[in-house]
Amino acid sequence: MIACRLGGKAKSMKMIYEGVDITENVDLHSCVHDMYAAGQSDTLNLMIDDSNKMWDRWDAKEGDEIQVISDDIDSGIMFVSKTRFEDGFVRLTAVSTPLTLFDRKNKTWVDVTFLRIARDIAGNHGLKLKVYDVEDKKYKILQQSNESDAAFLYRRCILEGCSFLVFNKTLVLYSVEAVENQEPVKTLTLSDQEDFKINKKESYGICAFHRGKYKGYYKNKEGRIYVPTLEFEVASTAEANRFAKNLLQHKNRAAQSGYKTMQGIDKGCTAASVLKIESGQAKSWNGPVLLYHVRNNYIYGMSKLFFWKI
Fold first, then answer.
1. Which of 17, 59, 122, 219 would you label with 169, given CA atoms 20 to 30 Å apart?
2. How many CA atoms lie within 13 A of 225 on its CB side?
3. Nearest-CA neighbor of 203 among 162, 253, 277?
């Protein structure tokens, strides 16, 4: 096992490459794991001593499978997307999504449901599918034009008020609203002695658009009008209004966001989990937040938590 310093205590890490435990054969200098709730693949960035030219002999290549386990925290199986050799080190980047998911394609989807799209995309890239609290919808015709499966599915997710992530060869499709309504898994305290930052922007009150002969409109409150630039088809007024509501909620989630850097790594703090904020300095932030991005540095035993206010 690779001895590292995590949170001030000696911890252990395990590295598996193409199904083989290579822990004893590598000298790991840097290991940063970024987890995202939506819109981006989880990433793993490693810097490994390669003075013995091991990686050249292994013929490491894009698409190879790699997994890092730090105590109870598991990156899941990820896919090498980039390798770079410099000054006796190899810098390796891996992502949680199969690389084929980013290949652009053209496809016409006819008489298809939302969940059928998710099942087909997952299956076409060797992924299992898990669905949580997502209402299925039917579409007469959809165009996927010079667009990757990842981008196409994410676009549909925004319109339907949900999102997806990929972990350990599983595509997880979930309702954002249902996740936000979960009970907090822990309390996060913000104090003057810690590195944290919160941002607050003016949110939009209305979403309005025209697509063909249909008008989409949703009003949450008086305020600015959001006119989406996202391209999508609309088949009815009811569908247009449903899209308007979900587009407005998606746009406003970034209105109140922040981050906190903390010593130690908490396995309960994962992307798409809900925490409770307690802050004496910024009391308006007290209450639930959703972690949309978590960065764990396994060598230095530090985490950076990025969140939006629910």
1. 59
2. 5
3. 253
Residue 192: its pLDDT value, please? 60
Altogether, the residues listed in the chain come to a count of: 310
3-class secondary structure per residue, the chain: CEEEEECCEEEEEEEEECCEECHHHCCEEEEEEEEECCCCCCEEEEEEECCCCHHHHHCCCCCCEEEEEECCEECCCEEEEEEEEECCEEEEEEECCCHHHHCEEEEEEEEEEHHHHHHHHHHHCCCEEEEECCCCCEEEEEEEEEEEHHHHHHHHHHHHCEEEEEECCEEEEEEHHHHHCCCCCEEEEECCCCCEEEEECCCEEEEEEEECCEEEEEECCCCEEECCCCCCCCCCHHHHHHHHHHHHHHHHCCCEEEEEEEECCCCCCCCCCEEEEEECCCHHHCEEEEEEEEEEECCCCEEEEEEEEC
CA distances from 139 to 112, 160, 210, 247 (A): 5, 12, 18, 18
Condensed to tens digits (0 to 9), the pLDDT of residues 150-182 reads 999 999 999 999 999 999 999 999 999 999 999
Residue 215's Cβ-side half-sphere holds a number of Cα atoms within 13 Å equal to 3
Q: Which residues pair with 73 in a beta bridge?
A: 70
Report yes or no: 4 and 69 within 8 Å, Cβ to Cβ. Answer: no
Tokens read off for 74: 């598991």
Closest to 180 measured CA to CA, from 282, 38, 35:
38
- Pick the more confident residue, 197 or 100: 100
272 has a pLDDT exceeding 70: yes
* Residue 226 in tokens: 């959001």
- Tokens representing residue 161 in the block: 């008020």
Q: Is the separation of the CB atoms in 68 and 298 below 8 Å? A: yes
CA distance 31 to 18: 18
Are residues 16 and 26 in contact, defined by beta-carbon separation less than 8 angstroms? no
Report, as an integer, the average pLDDT of 6-14: 53
